[in-house]
Design goal:
This protein is of the alpha+beta class. Helix 1 packs parallel to helix 6. The longest helix is centred in the middle third of the chain and has 23 residues. The structure holds uridine-5'-diphosphate (UDP). The site of uridine-5'-diphosphate has 14 residues, from strand 9, helix 2, strand 12 and strand 14.
Length: 237
């Protein structure tokens, strides 16, 4: 371990954040707690923290190699990841390849149809407001990100999709949609947070079964098994 763990600075729904003896580094501790529907539904997915930490490491490495800078520094243990300290841009960025979830519900569209080319959506990261869908004009109005930063976010979100979708396809998983968060590190944009079955929708190519947090949201059972299966396919374990 290259740093020592300091005090807890923030506890979120799925992670705890700790300071370190390096002012520019944070430790993310991945918990097993699961929430859905703006935390109205709560539960535990056994060993989810370990799975999400390891999957995120693999995907951050893949993205870095593909030209998308991330906050990832190193994985310290089963549940701990060392990252650069960033100022999170308060926007949740969703990329969609297939119609599902809130898109199907809000617009009355049929789940399962391909979206070509993929679309990018923005949500205002604000639990009290229930993370509402926002437009680029709203982002400008609220000064959530500079226009140049927003353009970079969009480009990197699509690049992330272009790198991840074939990676998952090779492993028998359809990348339906996913959510990203970005942060500013010394004024430079980097991809932050995590990329895991908590933040992505994966459907098994053959059976079309959900292999992600939808199993928890919809009480589909075999939740732990699905997370472990995604880990196995992503990390070749
Ligand atoms: N997502 C997320 N956190 C959120 C909302 C959505 O990680 O607070 C992910 C979700 O897992 C899915 C994608 O973003 O992969 C699109 O989610 P959607 O807008 O369809 O919302 P949901 O149906 O999950 O409410």
């Amino acid at each position: 371990m290259t740093v020592s763990k300091g005090s807890l600075i923030y506890e979120g729904k799925a992670k705890k954040l700790f300071e370190t003896d390096n002012a520019d580094r944070l430790i993310h501790y991945f918990k097993d707690d699961a929430t859905a529907f703006n935390a109205q539904k709560k539960g535990t997915i056994v060993e989810k923290g370990i799975v999400n930490n390891k999957i995120s490491e693999r995907l951050f490495r893949l993205l870095e190699a593909g030209g998308v800078p991330t906050h990832f520094v190193e994985r310290l243990s089963d549940r701990e990841m060392l990252t650069k300290k960033v100022r999170i841009v308060p926007i949740e960025v969703v990329v969609r390849n297939i119609i599902a979830g809130s898109l199907a519900k809000r617009l009355g569209l049929k789940e399962g149809e391909a979206i070509t080319p993929p679309i990018v959506e923005f949500y205002y990261k604000n639990d009290a407001l229930g993370d509402p869908l926002i437009t680029e004009e709203h982002i400008r109005l609220m000064k959530l990100a500079e226009p140049a930063v927003l353009n970079q976010i969009k480009a990197w979100a699509l690049r992330t999709n272009a790198l991840l979708a074939p990676f998952f396809a090779e492993r028998g998983l359809i990348l339906v949609d996913f959510k990203l968060e970005f942060g500013l590190h010394n004024g430079k944009l980097v991809l932050a947070d995590e990329i895991s079955p908590d933040t992505c929708r994966f459907w098994d190519q053959k059976t079309k079964e959900s292999m992600d947090k939808d199993r928890f949201r919809k009480d589909l059972g075999k939740i732990e098994e699905a997370y472990q299966e995604v880990l196995r396919r992503v990390c070749d374990v």
